[in-house]
From TrEMBL, chain A:
This is Pyruvate ferredoxin oxidoreductase. The lineage of its organism: Bacteria, Bacillati, Bacillota, Clostridia, Eubacteriales. Residues 262-365 form the Pyruvate:ferredoxin oxidoreductase core domain. Residues 16-240 form the Pyruvate flavodoxin/ferredoxin oxidoreductase pyrimidine binding domain. It holds the Pfam family PFOR_II. The gene is porA. Keywords: Oxidoreductase, Pyruvate. GO terms for molecular function: oxidoreductase activity, acting on the aldehyde or oxo group of donors. Belongs to the pyruvate:ferredoxin/flavodoxin oxidoreductase family. InterPro entries: PFOR_II, Pyruvate:ferred/Flavod_OxRd, Pyrv_Fd/Flavodoxin_OxRdtase_N, THDP-binding, Transketo_C/PFOR_II.
UniProtKB/TrEMBL annotation, chain B:
This is 4Fe-4S binding protein. Keywords: 4Fe-4S, Iron, Iron-sulfur, Metal-binding, Repeat. Residues 40-69, 70-99 form the 4Fe-4S ferredoxin-type domain. GO terms for molecular function: 4 iron, 4 sulfur cluster binding; metal ion binding; oxidoreductase activity, acting on the aldehyde or oxo group of donors, iron-sulfur protein as acceptor. It comes from Candidatus Eubacterium avistercoris. Its cofactor is [4Fe-4S] cluster. The keyword Repeat applies.
UniProtKB/TrEMBL annotation, chain C:
InterPro entries: Oxidoreductase_gamma_subunit, PorC_KorC, Pyrv/ketoisovalerate_OxRed_cat, Pyrv_flavodox_OxRed_cen. This is 2-oxoacid:acceptor oxidoreductase family protein. The keyword Oxidoreductase applies. It comes from Candidatus Eubacterium avistercoris. Residues 13-186 form the Pyruvate/ketoisovalerate oxidoreductase catalytic domain.
Length: 392, 101, 191
């Protein structure tokens, strides 16, 4: 029986951490993720879990300590946001190249500047090339469910990569909403014990972690990281299937909402997907075939699968919550259009920017996007690319 | 996956490398004959040596083996010829000679 | 009640408007509703105007935007009427609930021509009488529940008592006062 509760996204992730009872959590507080280490350390103080909490002096140190702990053989996690993630930069790449299955609860927040505490995806998207697996949530439920699946993906023998479980700062992290929790025992059985093959604190079986690689080895090492990310695709699907068995909730690379027969599709990531679904429902009632494709797994990027999911629509809008400054659109815009081209699917696409620095994204905004798509198709209008939604 | 370092070299395919470049073994530096890098060689004059053992701990490559409180001959497979031992010896028991011998 | 109601709270940092919104989500959840309770965050500090929101529905809530056309607006601090357009988008068939000693007729001229229902609650008086201190959020919470009818008085008081018992486990002496403040405010609205 599912446990019906209400909690914020940060509470939901902290609760998942409590149920998993990982070995080590080094963390440094930063808005809006601060509540996660705060709540986990409360669980520890109350004796509910025996995770070793390491208070560190910076995020550079929290990820360094996470790398050390994970290499030592401990199931490890940390949490951060925005500038905190940026301060981990160097270590993020090391965690991935050392193939350490660390979990990071990322509460998405604008990367300064201008300095701002609210949600956009510039921190998470900025870390897209670090070799981490990235999974994004629409709401507190998905943040919880994704975290429970995290270690099963990261620690899988064909993967062994660090994983970021991302949710929108404040919008879901601080919003109290209904949620269905799993029983402790179910979570424990699902996640299982971490049994690394080789680790530092293993008497009689010494290892060296993170040796210098001369030029002749680096490309081969990177190729192996890439193979692991490719392997992660099947593992993500397998773990999701097994998770559906205990929760009744199904996940894939993305969630498709009324896309099957849709003429117009909005593709986006995170909490705005729910808002866009309400717009799609309104338009369906008005006879417009609108659908939403919500990307869940951004790394590895399911290029082929996205292209297939979009191939039958007349026009698709790709919404980015992060500027890439390439003057040719956003991160998602570039990657999705490349995926379409490579798969020879030549539908009309429009790339938008929305929600930067926490700018609200409303049902009306989503309707406006659908309106633009219809205009492009029905009146053969040239799409206005890279429009900032709600710009004054 | 205990690592056999002798099977990994600069011609190894990516499929032959270890996960995360990890080396699951210890003491593997012995397998690298850094003595090949040498262009100057220490010469040990045993008759001058007082066995004070100032030389052994300063050697960056552990190329001065010590047994039963006495230093032995140089390990020239690993000595890079840096000359620190010759410099630190108070008794002129180590001198440097041009060349690899 | 409607299938979904939307509530917007206006307060000042430190007055407990956010806490009240979260408490409302909490009690509504206990009656089997789908809920959302969330504040709008900025660099606010004590005294700065803040906004918080609630959605309460019989169906799962997916929308994650702020609320622009609320059914109800709660004003926890009446001095905000001078600086914030509190009735912006407020539905005519909804209501605004204001913490003030004035009558609805006296405050209506400050409401930018809002034509709907105006409810006033003297939360200061109620709080000081019931608790001996000024905590406006409990009376305002009761007033919005009474006005909106999201749940009946008996159920509301029962759930709130359970919440307070949990929240004030270490200060049980304040529970009775808070319960009294809730009941007084509920009755003052007179629904």
């Amino acid at each position: 029986m599912a446990i019906k509760e209400r909690m914020s996204g940060n509470e939901a992730v902290s609760y998942a951490i409590k149920q998993i009872n990982p070995d080590v959590m080094p963390a440094f507080p930063i808005t809006p993720s601060t509540e996660i280490p705060q709540m986990v350390s409360t669980y520890i103080a109350n004796g509910e879990i025996d995770t070793e909490f390491i208070p560190v002096e910076s995020e550079h140190s929290s990820m360094s300590a996470a790398i050390g702990a994970s290499a030592a053989g401990a199931r490890t996690l940390t949490a951060t946001s925005s500038a905190g993630l940026a301060f981990m930069w160097e270590e993020l790449l090391l965690a991935a190249s050392n193939r350490l299955p660390i979990a990071l609860a990322l509460v998405l927040r604008t990367l300064s500047g201008p300095i701002n505490i609210n949600c956009d995806h510039s921190d998470g998207m900025g870390a897209r090339d670090t070799g981490w697996i990235q999974i994004y949530a629409e709401n507190n439920q998905e943040a919880y469910d994704n975290f429970i699946q995290a270690y099963r993906i990261a620690e899988h023998k064909d993967v062994k990569l660090p994983i970021m479980i991302c949710q929108d700062g404040f919008i879901t992290s601080h919003a109290v909403e209904n949620i269905e929790l799993l029983e402790d025992e179910k979570v424990k059985n699902f996640v299982g014990e971490y049994q690394p093959e080789e680790y530092l604190l293993n008497p009689g079986k010494p290892i060296s972690v993170g040796p210098y690689a001369v030029t002749n080895y680096v490309m081969e090492g990177k190729k192996n990281q890439l193979i692991a990310l490719e392997n992660a695709k099947q593992v993500i699907l397998d773990v999701a299937k097994e998770f559906a068995g205990i929760s009744g909730r199904e996940y894939g690379f993305f969630g498709e909402y009324k896309t099957e027969d849709a003429d117009y599709i909005i593709l986006l990531i995170g909490s705005a997907a729910g808002t866009a679904k309400d717009a799609a429902d309104q338009l369906r009632k008005e006879g417009v075939k609108a659908g939403i494709l919500k990307l869940r797994v951004f790394r590895p990027f399911p290029a082929k699968e996205i292209a297939q999911a979009l191939k039958n629509c007349k026009a698709a809008a790709i919404l980015d919550r992060c500027e890439s400054y390439n003057t040719n659109g956003g991160v998602l815009g570039s990657e999705v259009t490349a995926a379409l081209y490579q798969n020879k699917i030549m539908i009309e696409t429009v790339n938008y920017m929305y929600g930067l620095g926490g700018r609200d994204f409303t049902v009306e905004d989503a309707r406006g996007v659908f309106e633009d798509l219809r205009n492009i198709v029905e009146h053969n209008a040239a799409p206005e690319q890279f429009k900032y939604i709600g710009l004054r | 996956m205990r690592t056999d370092i002798t099977k990994i070299n600069e011609q190894t395919s990516h499929t032959g490398l270890t996960e995360g470049m990890r080396i699951c073994a210890s003491g593997t530096s012995r397998l690298f004959n850094t003595g090949e890098w040498r262009n100057s060689t220490p010469v040990y004059h045993e008759e001058q040596c007082k066995q004070c053992l100032l030389c052994a701990p300063v050697c960056p490559d552990s190329s001065i083996p010590v047994k039963d409180g006495k230093r032995l001959a140089f390990d020239l497979d690993h000595c890079k010829g840096c000359g620190i031992c010759a410099n630190v010896c108070p008794f002129g028991a180590i001198t440097m000679k041009e060349g690899i011998e | 009640m409607n299938q979904e109601i939307e509530i917007r709270w206006h307060g000042r940092g430190g007055q407990g408007a956010k806490t009240a919104a979260l408490l409302l989500a909490d009690v509504a959840f206990k009656t089997g509703k789908y809920v959302q309770g969330f504040p709008e965050y900025g660099p606010e500090r004590m005294g700065a105007p803040i906004t918080a929101y609630n959605r309460i529905s019989d169906d799962r809530i997916r929308v994650h935007s702020n609320i622009y056309d609320p059914d109800y607006v709660v004003v926890v601090d009446e001095t905000l009427l001078h600086s914030v357009d509190v009735t912006a988008g407020l539905k005519k068939d909804g209501a605004i609930i204001i913490n003030t000693a004035k009558t609805p007729e006296e405050v209506r001229p400050q409401l930018n021509g809002y034509e709907g229902r105006v409810v006033t609650v003297d939360a200061r008086n109620i709080s000081e009488e019931a608790l001996g201190k000024y905590f406006p959020n409990s009376p305002m919470l009761a007033a919005v529940v009474a006005t909106s009818g999201v749940m009946g008085k008996e159920q509301f008081l029962k759930e709130m008592e359970a919440s307070y018992k949990h929240k004030f486990a270490k200060k049980p002496e304040v529970i009775a006062g808070n319960m009294k403040a809730l009941e007084m405010a509920f009755d003052a609205v007179g629904c």
